[in-house]
Structure formats: structure tokens, C-alpha cells
Amino acid sequence: MKVLMVCLGNICRSPLAEGILREKARQAGLHWEIDSAGTNGYHTGEAPHHLSQKVARLNGVDISTQRARRFTVDDFQHFDKIYAMAGDVIDDMRRIAGKKFDPNKVDLLMNEVHPGKDQDVPDPWYGPEPGYHEVYKMIDVAANRIIAKYGQPGAGGSTQGQTSGFTPQKSHEQK
Ligand code: 4NP
Predict the structure, then answer these.
(1) How far apart are CA 53 and CA 19, in angstroms?
(2) Looking at CB atoms within 10 Å, which of 7, 38, 125, 145 has the fewest?
(3) pLDDT tens readout for residues 67-110
(4) The pairing of beta strand 33-38 with beta strand 106-108
(5) Is 169 exposed, middle or buried (0-12, 13-18, 19+ CB in 10 A)?
(6) 53 CA distance to ligand 1 middle (Å)
(7) Within 10 A of 29 (CB to CB), how many other CB atoms are there?
(8) What's the gap between Cα 162 and its chain centre?
(9) Does ligand 1 have an atom closer than 6 angstroms to the CB of 139?
(10) Continuous segment of H or E residues that includes residue 78
């Protein structure tokens, strides 16, 4: 399974989402391809924000070698599932992808935790360190749900590079 995490700058939220899900997939023995991107491209080539790196490190996840890149229309071709951190990110993705925007592949990350609630992962960029810890916790719960949902044999996400047969599913679980 190929999963893309997307936020605005690709330096605060989505690098955390990439690193957290990659670590959980590794621990689960899943050979998934996981990447992240930002819709605004302002920070292309930069390492994750130092506070994202810090909270990741405190939780045993190393995101220091990840580098920001801009989301492109080709990402809809390559990835099976694309998670946006917030609604404004989906608006940007629609603008960038135009007719190639594929709603079947896109969802808000937190809809994996609270289906249909359309909750954003708040942008910690303008705030102090506690915001980054809060973001980490939210993404951690969502990543657990993704592993539980797509990491089972037969779920369509258990093998490397498997694209056919993967059907995005909506969870109806309410918490
Ligand atoms: P992110 O946070 O989308 O979580 O990476 C942001 C980082 C930078 C900017 C916006 C959001 N910016 O406009 O530079």
C-alpha cells in the first residue's frame, strides 16, 4: 500500500504523519510506501520543523532525514490513499489536481478516528511547543487506526506495491 500524508508546508504536520505511520508499519512488518508533501511549496527541500523533530524523537521516531516537497497532480496516480491534515489542504489539492482530483483516494486523516466528523489536525506552525505534542497524539491515534484497518491480510494494504484490489473503505465505527 502506498500512502501520502499532506499538509500546507510539509514541515510540521505531514512529516510527523509520515514518520509515525512508517514506524508503525515497520513494527507491524508491513512493506508500505509512505511519503508526505505540502500544498504550498514554501519550504521545499527543508527538514521538518525542529519542534516536529523534537516530539518525534521523544517518541522514538526519527524524521530528521525527511525533506519537504510540493504535492503534485501525479501523486494521485502513484498513491493508493492520500490523507490531508485539514480541510484547507483538500481545497488546495483540488486546485492543484483539477480534473485529476480523485475523491476516492482522499480523506481527512482524523476521519479515520472520528468518521464523518471532518476534524482538522490543527496547524502548530504559529504556536508554541505544546501544540506539536497535541498534533503528535492526534496523528498517533489515527496511524494506529490505519494500520488496524489496512494492515490485515486481505485488507488490500498488506503487501508492498499492491495497488489493484485496494478499495478505500469507510469505517463506521464511532468513538
Ligand atoms: P504544516 O505547517 O502545514 O503543518 O507544515 C505550516 C508550515 C508553514 C506554513 C504553513 C503551515 N507556511 O505558510 O509557511
Answers:
(1) 10
(2) 125
(3) 999 999 999 999 999 999 999 999 999 999 999 999 999 999 99
(4) unpaired
(5) exposed
(6) 15
(7) 8
(8) 18
(9) no
(10) helix 75-78
